Amino acid sequence: SQQGEEDPQALSIQEGENATMNCSYKTSINNLQWYRQNSGRGLVHLILIRSNEREKHSGRLRVTLDTSKKSSSLLITASRAADTASYFCATAIIQGAQKLVFGQGTRLTINP
Amino acid sequence: GAGVSQSPSNKVTEKGKDVELRCDPISGHTALYWYRQSLGQGLEFLIYFQGNSAPDKSGLPSDRFSAERTGGSVSTLTIQRTQQEDSAVYLCASSFLSRGLSTDTQYFGPGTRLTVL
């Protein structure tokens, strides 16, 4: 079963605007990761935030994690056409299993 | 250095045939993972290897699916008697586990698109 629920399922904005995507999950986690996927193929790792962290930055990316609400958000600032892709959150659950449990993803379209 | 590679990139097969999908992880990565992404679905975990052993096979959908890893490197995912519902993109990832239970960053390959006619 899916651990993560992403919101919105699709987002279309103008180039230069900020894009915010949200992810909620159900069980306790060790860390949460965000990935990008272009054209339905390989995933590119964007950022990892651990359960004891609240916010993390990487370039134009900002990720927050609220373990009390079991939710995370990914903010992409000053969006570019090249940011058009699907974005997935993935949680690594505690219990020794090393698998990532992915959300359904948000399809982001940046209009020039 | 090279990333994770997978072969073939595309595979079309007939229902009932067996297929083998290959994954070459990043050199030195101890952990290897297989995921499946079906049309309109998210990514689902299939199996995970630590070295040559598979502590977690919980995601394999049926006994037609099996995987092995030899020499702590290359892995093969085998699907026997393929069915149309097996059509999906099969993604492999690898990571270097430096701590006991934590999951470090997983690096994904480009995937194999399997189509079962």
Task: Outline the fold blueprint.
The complex is a heterodimer of chains A (112) and B (117).
Chain A: E1 5-7, E2 10-14, E3 19-24, E4 29-37, E5 43-50, E6 55-58, E7 61-66, E8 71-76, E9 85-93, E10 100-102, E11 106-111
Parallel strand pairs in A: 2-11
Antiparallel strand pairs in A: 1-3, 3-8, 4-5, 4-9, 6-7, 7-8, 9-10, 9-11
Chain B: E1 5-7, E2 10-13, E3 19-24, E4 31-37, E5 43-50, E6 53-56, E7 65-69, E8 75-79, E9 88-95, E10 107-108, E11 112-116
Parallel strand pairs in B: 2-11
Antiparallel strand pairs in B: 1-3, 3-8, 4-5, 4-9, 5-6, 7-8, 9-10, 9-11
Shape of chain A: globular
Helix content class of chain A: under 10%
Describe the sheet with the most strands of chain B. 7 strands, mixed
Q: Outline the low-pLDDT stretches of chain B.
A: none
Q: What do these coordinates show?
A:
The complex is a heterodimer of chains A (112) and B (117). With 112 residues, chain A is mainly beta. Chain A has strands spanning 5-7, 10-14, 19-24, 29-37, 43-50, 55-58, 61-66, 71-76, 85-93, 100-102, 106-111. Chain A has no helices and 11 strands. In chain A, the strands form 2 sheets. In chain A, strands 2, 4, 5, 9, 10 and 11 form a 6-stranded mixed β-sheet that branches. Chain A has a 5-stranded antiparallel β-sheet with strand order 1-3-8-7-6, with no helix packed on it. The N and C termini of chain A lie far apart (37 Å). Chain B has strands at residues 5-7, 10-13, 19-24, 31-37, 43-50, 53-56, 65-69, 75-79, 88-95, 107-108, 112-116. In chain B, the strands form 2 sheets. In chain B, strands 2, 4, 5, 6, 9, 10 and 11 form a 7-stranded mixed β-sheet that branches. In chain B, strands 1-3-8-7 form a 4-stranded antiparallel β-sheet, with no helix packed on it. In chain B, β7 and β8 (75-79) form a beta hairpin. Chain B is globular, with a radius of gyration of 14 Å. The A-B interface holds A 2, 30-31, 33, 35, 40-45, 48, 88, 90, 92, 94, 96-105 and B 31, 33, 35, 37, 41-45, 48, 50, 55-56, 58-59, 89, 91, 93, 95, 97, 101-111, 113.
